[in-house]
User: Fold these one by one.
Assistant:
Number 1:
Amino acid sequence: MAMTNDRNSTSSDIKRRGQLGIIWRQYRKNTLAMVGLIVFLLLVCVAVFSPVFLDYQNDIILMNNKIRLQAPSAEHILGTDQYGRDILFRIIWGSRVSLVVGLFTVGVALLVGGIIGAISGYYGSVIDNFLMRIMDVFLAMPATIMAVAIVGALGPGLINLLIAMSIARIPQFARVVRSSVISICGQEFVEAARACGTKDFRIIMRHILPNCVGPIVVQCTLHMATTILGVAGLSFIGLGIQAPVPEWGSMLSEARDFMQTNFNMMLYPGIAIVIAVLSLNLIGDGLRDALDPRLKK
């Protein structure tokens, strides 16, 4: 019996690696998706390793009025802001904030929304109606408006921003997971697992959710892009990350008063937002195509 289980586990691992290889080969055929992946990985590397070559106190928040509002130069590649702080350094550090908020928000929303969606889709009936009606209440309000309302009630700040953005994304993940679970619950291998007396938790975790990975991964990339935009928007109106911590949206807000005289203060943070969001959208489109069985030969 042990040898049989080992053989089944080995064959399952080989099959899984083969499927991942097929998905990767399909993904590599999409040039724009590869460009998006490379750009996003570069952003991640910059965010992770920025504390190695930047000092937060001296390079990011220290004010120097002698060099305020300078144009791009060899010493300050993107120029300086109204307080004499290097714009490039602040954009690099701001990537840490945007990526951390995006990853945390998507992670929490996926965990909570995935549990709700899996339970709702698997059991159906009264449980499904109860949970989905609650999700409908949240979905009745746009995610950004809901985040604004939550942050407005709790107050601005990083922790409150994380809570608000996470709560706003939970219903969408719950809907995606629920629809995927419903489409898989009727498959023969699920019925076979039930007939063998397998517990519901094991069926959901072992047989159903692994087959829902495709749409869930695509949703993660797309929601992370919208989260970065949402964080920038909240910071722009003063409800997100507070000064002096650099964040792309707050940098845009500070640059409004100098839009005509120092346009570079607004241009470069805006470009950073566009690059991050575009790369994630390209990754999501590439994953969607690679995971679509209708496109595989």
Number 2:
Amino acid sequence: MMAKDKKVMLITGASGRIGKNCVHRFADEYQVVGFDRHEHKHEKDMVHINMDISSDESVKDALNQVRNRFGNDIGPVIHLAAYYTFSDQKADLYDAITVQGTRRMLEGLHEFNSVDQFMFSSTLLVHKPCEVGQTINENSPIDPKWDYPKSKVKTEKVINDLHGDIPAVVMRIAGCYDDLCHSIPIAHNIQRIYQHEVDAHLYPGNVTHGNPFLHLEDLTDAIQLAITKRNELPNPFVVIIGEDKTMSYADLQNAISEILEHKDYHVYRVPKWLAKDGAWVENRLPFFNDNFIQPWMIDMADDHYALDISCAEKHLGWRPKHYIGTSLPVMMELLKTDPVQWYEENGLVMPKHLRKHIEAHAK
């Protein structure tokens, strides 16, 4: 039964990492209803409703279940469901899930009497990279380079066109991590250095360039502030959320190397054509079974992003409490104490010879 003093909060993609964190954060204040294709057991109460956001019928049925069970007035909607992959590019899935899925949600939400807020998780990658010394704000040029940010740009337009009288928030967020890492790019960087791979010393771009990151707890803080201050925000409200210090690729690699106590670590720049050929080969040979770098990524190796978060400070009173540079020792602590578990936590494949070496020394 729903607590009578709680408003309903809808979270799409509730079983994802951001979604689970939102459920844990808001379950005391709201009656959380989680939409996802797969049910996930949370530490705090959440009503799960099965929904395939790529289906008109499924979205309509899920929202009807909300209406029948909880009524026609709902609180905030945190829309996280989206398609995302590094392995290949599938524009049709980005459109069906991210773009059209958002359209389905907004059209369905307009059938309720009231919706407090609609919040969408976009990405800072919708913006054109900047030069070192410059920063990116919400008004900076839009220039997405691959299907994931391109789908976010299209979805932002859908929201702008369809949100109507529903207050809308678009958060352009940096790449997220937490205390166990759970960041695909960072985890693979750590893995390559930990395994003493040749690739760890090679880079096809300017090593003084880099990307900002965002701790999951800081993102959840920003979401909570946007909900709390929803009546004070512009409509729609677009805001960049990320750390306002960017760690260069070289500094990131050197910091990882120092934590692992690897001596004389160096990064050497290689031509892009050679890096593309190497990535192409590694993705086709059977003994390279845990590849992250794809040939299409090489052209973006020189991209640099640094953020101006003054909008988040002004309207939300938000600043990040974490920084990737000081968080690395925390996220790598488990790696140093239990490498097998750290690999499993981050979805990495540990080479058999390394696992045997670790197990032998553990005995």
